[in-house]
Amino acid sequence: MLDYLIHLAAEFIILSMLTLCLDIIIGFVGYLNLGHVAFWAIGSYTYALLMLHGVPFFVSMVAAGVVAGIAGFLIGLPTLRLKGHYIAIATLGFMYITGAFLSNLTDVTRGPLGLPGIPRPTIFGFYFGSDFLFLGLTVAISLVVALLIYKILHSPFGKILETIREDEVAAKALGKNTFGYKLQANVVSAFFVGIMSALSASFFQYIGPTDFEVPRMIFFLAALMIGGAGSFWGGLLGAVVILGLEECTRFIALPPNAIGPIRTMIYAVILIAVMLYKPNGILGKKIKAFDR
Fold first, then answer.
1. Cβ–Cβ under 8 Å, residues 292 and 83
2. In sequence order, what DSSP letters do the residues of 14-63 get, joined into one string?
């Protein structure tokens, strides 16, 4: 039982932090990014390939963040000039393109077979092989990442992002390079996704193209909408709620092939309830940019 709770806690923290990273671009900039899991995939594969070739943990982790950040910069150049649903469609296409590359670059990624045996980190000769030790490492790194994100979002830079979200025309009138700020936010979001992807890859010790598809994107969007976009704590809370409900379905005595539909139904019911009674989420704010 204790091993199960430790494993669950680590999963909660990693997926909650990935949801928080998505909140930077959706909640604080106001643009519906559906390519979030593509950055997760890019960071995970970068980290896994480096670790499998004997590169030290911290070097691999930072490299995952940098490569994901570069991807955020490159995809942000064309997509962040778009408006409304067009940016959602463009970033969704980026997710599918990334998945196609991962599935077909068999010489590098092993295609649909994925990358098994991703090692747990060894830091200064200390091996974080057990789930308990890895949980401690996950908590430490996640606290640093969360603190950095908090500082960024509550800095003058973060206030400008909120201004752009509420009224981009007004921000331009104040002389702000709105496209530049949005691009920086996209890079920051992707970079931290890359950092967290290092923890997720080592935690699960396997990654494959099917790990980064639409169902995962729906999970992050549902978590963010339930917790509340535009709130630092909203994304974290929403991910915990969704994951908690997912775990509850494991204890329902139903055929295995029924668990997936039941989870989908639970997502739908909760989302409908939240949209009816708390349309901005539990802790979120109204995102005017979504009305454009």
1. yes
2. HHHHHHHHHHHHHTSS------HHHHHHHHHHHHHHHHHTT--HHHHHHH
Tokens 């978590």 sit on residue: 223
Mean pLDDT of successive 10-residue stretches along the chain, which has 292 residues: 83 91 89 90 95 92 96 92 84 91 89 90 87 92 94 91 86 86 94 95 91 85 84 83 76 66 71 75 62 50
Torsional sign, CA 226, 230, 235, 237: negative
DSSP for residue 80: T
**DSSP classification of residue 95:** H
Distance CA 292, CA 286 (A): 13
The residue ranges of every structural domain in the chain are: 2-210
The full length of the chain comes to 292
Residue 105 has phi, psi (to 5 degrees) of: -85, 65
Cβ-Cβ contacts under 8 Å for 113 (sequence gap 6 or more): 208
pLDDT in tens, 192-222: 999 999 999 999 999 999 888 888 888 888 8
pTM: 0.89
Which stretches of the chain are DSSP H helices? 2-26, 36-52, 57-79, 85-104, 106-109, 131-153, 156-166, 168-173, 178-204, 214-227, 232-249, 256-277
The four Cα atoms 211, 213, 216, 221 give a dihedral, to 10 degrees, of 160
Per-residue pLDDT reduced to its tens digit, 35-75 = 899 999 999 999 999 999 989 999 999 999 999 999 999 99
Residues 26 and 21: their CA atoms lie apart, in Å, by: 9
